[in-house]
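#dry-run=false #mode=assembly
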Amino acid sequence: MSAKLDRREVVAALLENRGDLLVVAGLGSTAWDCTAAGDHALTFPMWGAMGQAAMMGLGLALAQPRRRVLVVTGDGEMLMGLGALATIGAQAPKNLSVVVIDNERYGETGMQATHTARGVNLASAARACGFVVARTIGAARELPALRRAIHGARGPVFAAVKVGTVKVPLVLPPREGALLKARFRRALLGEAADSE
Amino acid sequence: MQPSGWPAAVHAALGAARIAVVGYVPDAGLKQLIGLCGSDRAMRAVPLTTEEEGVGLAAGAWLGGARSVLLMQSSGVGNTINALGMVRECRFPFVTIVTMRGEHGEFNPWQVPMGQATPAVFEAMGVVVQSAREAGAVAPAVEAAIRLAYNSYCAVAVLVSQRVIGIKSFQEQLGE
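#status=ok
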């Protein structure tokens, strides 16, 4: 078996030259991965509300139909809100991508196996829910195409990127929720963020 | 106002307040309102598989500058609890319209525990609870809730009493 992808390298590659991409990062390791790639006002890193990352992405995609929206989250977080795949499929937002960084573990709680370690295939579930693009990715050579799909393919786009379980250093975003919300809205909406 | 008129009045209030996204889990008592929102081209009605999805949807919509409401039955309120923690921590404006069961003349005992716990659950999570016990009180309560939420960055639940909905039997709920 070939060496597993490094989660930090995957997320950095997907967020490289991100342009005007709007990003929601699911709680735990994926929020730290996005921060390691560069803390950004237009990334909303979650510290809680497990299971809601994909739905945050849907709300954002519906509110901002001209912008591309990317949700980066973990397999455990996605599994907790699996119904969101059906809800997103039913809405079919063309500008939304959901990328699961899948290490088949609950990384913050002791590396217990998730359902994806026992054969549950998230990309198949997304395809069955109507995602236009739905892939499982295991090789670095597939990442440029995924990055292009995030920026330009007709969505909704889904990818489960299989990564290794090597421990990576903590790189933490700001913690205060009201701050994270306000800085995102200011960066996106400008002065309208304060008048609305 | 006719008892059947409150959904139209609430829909008009949502439109006047520029509500653009309406997440919902169906309830018999919300049937008319869901239909009105679904056929309004200025609103995006989003059916959910479970109520907590509506909390993430509302938060994401607000990050993007859009106002929303969540429609649900009282039995779904318990599903939203942990997600409401994000609403509080981030001070997301949040409005939900909840049709009550297990409250006024309920016929299904399984509806009673969550219906009775609904105000306490919301209050425990920092959600302002406002009740509408008459049909004519629903739209004004929704209008005020939207102002409170979006002007003062609050989470507000409008509980529409079972007295207003008027469901007294399973047959009636099915429209028989």
